[in-house]
Each structure stands twice: as structure tokens, then as C-alpha cells.
From TrEMBL:
Bilayer-spanning residue ranges: 12-39, 59-82, 94-114, 126-146, 183-202, 208-226
Organism placement in taxonomy: Bacteria, Pseudomonadati, Pseudomonadota, Alphaproteobacteria, Rhodobacterales
Keyword Chaperone: no
Protein name (record): DUF1275 domain-containing protein
Keyword hit for Nucleus: no
Keywords per UniProt: Membrane, Transmembrane, Transmembrane helix
Length: 234
């Protein structure tokens, strides 16, 4: 699941990875919006809000949205630096380790919410979630050669429309479009489903939601880390 990279990955593996990670992204994106009116997983809305606030002279609000975009980019950059460096050293388990690290970050945020009694309306926590989402999207992009993007909803929706159009064309185009159609359709569905679940659970306990997302990620990463260690590919 997390040990095969690029062309070595099968469609089924990519579908499963997309389902898990996009569900997590959708849940955290919904929670960020409900808690603070900003997106943690999808930067389109945040960048638009930055431009709108800046145009009307609301500098503080504009900078807050710019900070979320910067956090997302920083998370993606941090993941890329880690993964590229590990790949040069032949460490195939780096993707599992990266997903494990993301799970630990969410565990830490959940613990913080419980122990300190904080809320996700606090800017620092929303910024941390944006960093985590940028980190996750970079991991899924790098491991799949950009086939799996768990937070890039606008691009996936565009691709989905193109693939639907291809399915109305000649048989060769239909066959070529079938696999990406399944992948992008599933990713969008799971992102939406995760958003619904995240919004519902948020009403009861934000920390519980963080814990559930963390368990999903750790459950994905730990078996792969063990498998890599047994195979001597850590």
C-alpha cells in the first residue's frame, strides 16, 4: 500500500489510498470551516478570501487566510524534503513513516484539545491542520506520481468532467478514461463523505474526530512499516 511507488502501484492500491486519505481530508476540511470559517484542506477558498479581504482593506483578516495558504505550502514542502532525501538513501518505508507522522500530529492535536480545553477556533490549531493537510497531499502526490491528490478538489472535478466526456467518445478513449474516472470519482465521493462525517462528529467532540482520523492514518501506516522492516527496506 505505502511501499509501492509510481508505476509499481496498482489501480486498487491507489483507490484504497485515495479513499482513506480523502475521507480524512474532507473531515478536517469541514471542521476547519465550521470552527473558524476557513478551509484546512482546500486552498482555493482561502486564497479567494485573502484576495477579497485585501481588496477591501481588511489587512488582518487577509493575512490570516494567507497564513493558512503558507502553512499548507510549508507542509507540502516539508513532506517533499523528507521523502526526496529518504528516497536518495534508498529508504522505501518513508511514505509509511510520513503517514505515521501525520497520524501522530493529529493525535497530538486531539490530546491538546482534551488536556488544555482549547477549541479549533484558535488560529494556531487551524494553521497546524493546514500544515498537516499540505503534508498529506504531498505524500499522496509523490507516492502515486500525482495520480492521487486527496485535497485538490477543483482539479479532480475538472478531470472527472473530462473523463466523463471521454466515456462518450470512441472505445479506445473510453477504456483509457475508465481507471482515472473511478479514482477521481471515488476521491470526490470520499472527500464529501468525510466532510459530512466530520461535521456531524464535530458537534459532539472535536477531539474524538481528531482521534478517529489519527487512528485511520496509523492503521494504514503501521502495518506497512512493519512489513518494510521485515523485508529490510526501512
Amino acid at each position: 500500500m505505502l511501499l509501492r511507488v509510481g508505476e509499481a502501484r496498482t489501480t486498487g492500491i491507489n483507490l484504497f489510498l485515495a479513499a482513506v486519505l480523502s475521507s480524512v481530508a474532507g473531515a478536517l476540511n469541514a471542521v476547519g470551516f465550521l470552527a473558524a470559517g476557513s478551509f484546512t484542506a482546500n486552498m482555493t477558498g482561502n486564497l479567494s478570501a485573502f484576495a477579497d479581504h485585501l481588496a477591501f482593506g481588511r489587512i488582518a483578516a487577509a493575512l490570516s487566510f494567507a497564513g493558512l495558504v503558507l502553512a499548507f505550502v510549508s507542509g507540502a514542502g516539508a513532506a517533499a524534503l523528507w521523502i526526496r532525501g529518504a528516497e536518495r538513501r534508498g529508504q522505501r518505508a518513508v511514505y509509511a513513516q510520513a503517514v505515521f507522522a501525520e497520524g501522530l500530529c493529529l493525535t497530538g492535536l486531539a490530546t491538546w484539545l482534551v488536556v488544555r480545553g482549547s477549541s479549533l477556533s484558535e488560529p494556531g490549531l487551524i494553521v497546524a491542520l493546514s500544515f498537516v493537510m499540505g503534508f498529506q497531499n504531498a505524500v499522496s502526490t509523490l507516492i502515486s506520481n500525482a495520480r492521487v491528490r486527496t485535497t485538490h478538489v477543483s482539479g479532480m472535478a475538472t478531470d472527472l468532467g473530462i473523463e466523463i466526456a471521454a466515456c462518450l467518445g470512441p472505445p479506445q478513449e473510453r477504456r483509457a478514461a475508465l481507471q482515472p474516472l473511478k479514482l477521481h470519482g471515488l476521491t470526490l465521493f470520499c472527500f464529501a463523505a468525510g466532510g459530512i462525517g466530520g461535521a456531524l462528529i464535530y458537534g459532539f467532540s472535536t477531539a474524538a474526530l481528531m482521534g478517529i482520523c489519527s487512528l485511520c492514518l496509523l492503521g494504514l501506516a503501521v502495518p506497512e512499516m512493519i512489513r518494510a522492516r521485515r523485508a529490510g527496506r526501512g
